[in-house]
Amino acid sequence: MTAAANGAGAELHRLVGERLGERDQRYTASRRQIIDAFAVLARPVTLPELLTRAKGLAQSSAYRNLAVLEEAGAVRRLLHGADHAHYELAEDLTEHHHHLICVECGLIRDITLGSTLERSLDNALDGVASAEGFTPTHHAIDIYGRCADCVPGPPA
Amino acid sequence: MTAAANGAGAELHRLVGERLGERDQRYTASRRQIIDAFAVLARPVTLPELLTRAKGLAQSSAYRNLAVLEEAGAVRRLLHGADHAHYELAEDLTEHHHHLICVECGLIRDITLGSTLERSLDNALDGVASAEGFTPTHHAIDIYGRCADCVPGPPA
DNA sequence: TTGCTTGCAAATGATTTGCACTGCT
DNA sequence: AGCAGTGCAAATCATTTGCAAGCAA
Q1: Domain range spanning residue A122?
Q2: Do A87 and A131 belong together in one domain?
Q3: Distance between CA A5 and CA A38 in Å, rounded?
Q4: Do B139 and A143 touch (CB under 8 A)?
Q5: Which of A9, A91, B79, B88 could pair with B44 in a Cys bridge, judged by C-beta atoms 3.0 to 4.6 Å apart?
Q6: Distance between CA atoms of A61 and A43, rounded to whole angstroms?
Q7: Average pLDDT by consecutive 10-residue portion of chain B (156 residues)?
Q8: Whether pTM exceeds 0.70
Q9: Do B143 and A143 lie within an 8 Å CB cutoff?
């Protein structure tokens, strides 16, 4: 059993607990289950998917806990065309990344751009935003396409 | 009265009508009103906003028409955190652009990157996607921040 | 105890759909 | 006539919320 499969690293839990503590919220077993699921899956997941991992957790509690975790800055909610929203660990608990979204099956995976590209992109986006009177805080890039399982005619 | 305020350009209407025709759908007055509103506002709008422009159009009809127009490739639906989805003209009826989103008031505006940056970005994104086994079709960049009206401490 | 958490059931609200009617073609 | 389009009212469904009970400090 890998460290990840065993549960998220102690460091991750410490950070999440800290952020919850700052808001007088407890780091309960349910919330740990959720964070563990994110750490194990390592990709944005929907609430139904999350529930299959966090056995025994009520749907409403999952929604409530995700809201608390999002509020505390430990989780981020993503909205794409899918029926359900996707949730993932906050970027500062992982690393700055973007998303690859399969237009066929809805799968979402993380990707990172090279630091060089990311840096020049950052500057460019800041420039454009400022020119429009916006004070930029962050950005997101989504690449849509077909994942390996959904490309037409895979088998020989 | 400008050409835009007078109604979208004849060319735009011709293209939309053509796409609807290909799917055996009519380009009715209601649909024209919707397209006109997009052309005049020139930014992604929510359904409630659209209804204030398309006087007399029933909410359900607006939703249905937008679905038809999206299906025909004339309109694109955007999902962000807001209560309502945003709609805009399809990119190939306007031009490739990205979005500036105000985290405070939800306003969304279009921006374009320089063609040089856009081109190198395109290549880079294609490369990353392919390396992950994805066959990319398109991409979207969202810059979040505060619009001029929402930056803290504006008045002197 | 006090108050954060939780599960269950009921409520909410954007979006969708059933149906009967109007209006092109 | 025949069928796409429309308005109205009712239905859907992800997400949220009220409430009573459980649990940790």
Answers
A1: 97-156
A2: no
A3: 11
A4: yes
A5: B88
A6: 21
A7: 56 94 92 95 95 93 96 94 93 95 92 91 94 95 94 64
A8: yes
A9: no
